[in-house]
Design brief:
By secondary structure, chain A is an alpha/beta fold. Helices cover 33% and strands 26% of the residues of chain A. In chain A, helix 4 crosses helix 5. Chain B is an alpha+beta fold. Classes of the chains: A alpha/beta, B alpha+beta.
Chain lengths: 242, 295
């Protein structure tokens, strides 16, 4: 996939899409959220991040989106150390990362199409491109017929698909799915995972943080297990429990 | 920098949000309007009090009693008096006029003056007015040094008291006004902050999809501007109507009350309120959004 606009983030192509070097995050008055984590994700990979609550999965997501800086270590994304970028550069980092959250995070009083289009309005894409691309991604997630509906009228699975459509609207090279199936029944969850696999197959690097043992075990993709802030397992074709 | 096209989006977004959150919009406009009306009332009162004190100060006068001098000397003296800085008006009072004034002053008790009428004991004098009571002492000194002036009389203590009263009124008025401006800003900023707080999720989502801080801020700033300006228009209309009404009733009840003419003061007031409304709206919303930008 090509970038919608040529920012510094998308234009560079490195074989290592993401590299964490000895990353440690300690919250004030709190436990060590991440402890000396070193991790490399290549372009086009599909990686599951698994672990119990409090293992550091959420912290990892927050660091990748630069909501927070690590206490120590470097995070190289697309060839740049994102722990060192300026605050005003953060939006441009986020434009090159699509995010899907467990709670969908859609604007309740915007239509499905408006929600998806918003990601592109933000990067100031042309109205024509927005119209074309929104139609395309909604078709991809199977919701073209619900473009004018409000999120409240949609099922949980459909809302998550809208959220996913928004995440890929700008054709990011990297997608983080933070427990995307957490609020969904198993059948609906599989629908979302299939979409993630499709997007990954088209070349997008995918990082899926999850609790869903069944999904992880049947797909046999790379699994990175976190425990108390440390990487305890990193296996190609892994399973949920070592 | 933001593309011009995107500004279209900002205005559309601000407009949509103003309409969708119409209750909050009306509440904010109402708050701005009420705060500005209260402020405007004080500004109008202040302007009138100011005008009144200025007039009272102008009415302070000084009398220079003359020695026995020729009319030629008197004319020269009049020119010299008029040349003193701050002097606005010099009126000659002849002995006869002074006598008539005295008679008027005594009114029904003028019998007291009986026996003096053929031998007027009064001296010729100049009545001198200044542009400000503040300069009276200075002017009195200058007048006293002129040749032909025998004695200078003016209400030294009265002037001093008057000045301290008007000065106090000005300070109190200014303090009140400053306090009201601050209170108005506080109330308005709080209202806007509530409106922004209600939409913090929206701001969060904007940030996650990579909106820059300014991109998030602009629609809110436009909304703040619209709310501020609309509130100011409402407040100015209410104040203009109220002031015309008050001036008319007052003129009917107390004909000589020195009110400040509605025009052009109301125009100036409206401009001040519009500027203030716009400023508070923009700064208030800009500040309120900032708190939710760090995600």
């Amino acid at each position: 996939m090509s970038k919608a606009n040529g920012t510094a983030w998308g234009s560079e192509r490195k074989e290592n899409m993401l590299e964490l070097r000895k990353v440690t995050k300690v919250y004030p008055n709190g436990p060590i959220a991440l402890n000396d984590v070193t991790l490399t994700v290549s372009q086009g990979e599909f990686v599951f991040i698994v672990g119990q609550s409090g293992a550091g999965k959420t912290t990892l997501t927050r660091l990748l989106l630069r909501e927070e800086k690590p206490t120590q270590g470097q995070i190289i994304f697309n060839g740049r150390d994102i722990t060192k970028i300026k605050a005003r550069e953060v939006p441009y980092l986020r434009r090159s990362i699509g995010v899907v959250f467990q709670d969908f995070r859609l604007m309740p009083n915007w239509t499905v199409a408006e929600n998806v289009a918003f990601a592109m309005v933000v990067v100031e894409a042309s109205p024509r491109l927005i119209q074309r691309r929104v139609g395309k991604v909604l078709e991809l997630v199977g919701l073209a017929h619900k473009a004018k509906q409000l999120p409240g009228n949609l099922s949980g699975g459909e809302q998550q698909r809208v959220s996913l459509a928004r995440a890929i609207a700008n054709q990011p090279a990297f997608v983080i799915a933070d427990e995307p199936t957490g609020n969904l029944d198993p059948e609906t969850a599989w629908g979302i995972v299939k979409l993630l696999l499709e997007i990954n197959a088209a070349g997008t690097t995918m990082l899926m943080v999850t609790h869903a043992k069944q999904i992880v075990d049947s797909l046999r993709k790379r699994v990175v297990a976190l425990e108390e802030g440390s990487v305890v397992r990193d296996e190609e074709r892994g399973v949920y429990h070592g | 920098m933001v593309k011009p096209r995107t500004f279209g989006y900002f205005f559309l977004s601000a407009g949509t949000s103003l309409v969708r959150n119409s209750l909050m919009t009306l509440a904010s406009i109402g708050t701005v309007a009420v705060a500005l009306v209260v402020l405007g009332v004080f500004i109008l009162l202040g302007a009138n009090i100011g005008a009144m004190t200025a007039q009272v100060e102008r009415q302070v006068e000084l009398t220079a009693h003359l020695a026995d001098i020729s009319s030629e000397q008197r004319r020269r003296l009049e020119t010299e008096l008029k040349a003193i800085p701050g002097v606005t008006d010099v009126t000659f009072v002849s002995r006869e006029e002074a006598w008539q004034k005295l008679l008027e002053w005594y009114g029904d008790n003028r019998d007291f003056l009986a026996g003096w009428e053929d031998d007027n004991p009064l001296r010729e004098a100049f009545t001198i007015r200044a542009d400000s009571a503040f300069r009276m002492t200075e002017i009195a000194q200058a007048v006293g040094q002129l040749r032909g002036v025998e004695e200078v009389v003016y209400g030294r203590e009265i002037v001093a008291q008057l000045l301290s009263i008007t000065r106090a009124m000005r300070i109190v008025g200014f303090g009140l006004m400053a306090g009201l401006v601050l209170a108005a800003i506080f109330i308005i900023v709080n209202t806007i902050r509530m409106a922004v707080f209600a939409r913090r999720r929206e701001i969060g989502i904007m940030r996650y999809v990579g909106a820059t801080a300014w991109f998030v801020r602009w629609p809110f700033i436009i909304e703040g501007l619209v709310i501020g300006l609309t509130g100011a228009v409402v407040a100015s209309s209410v104040l203009a109507w109220g002031y015309y009404f008050a001036v008319r009733s007052l003129a009917a009840a107390i004909p000589f009350w020195p009110v400040v003419a509605p025009w052009p003061m109301l125009q100036t007031l409206a401009l001040v309120l519009l500027g203030l409304g716009a400023l508070i709206g923009v700064v208030g919303s800009g500040m309120s959004v900032r708190r939710y930008l760090d995600v």
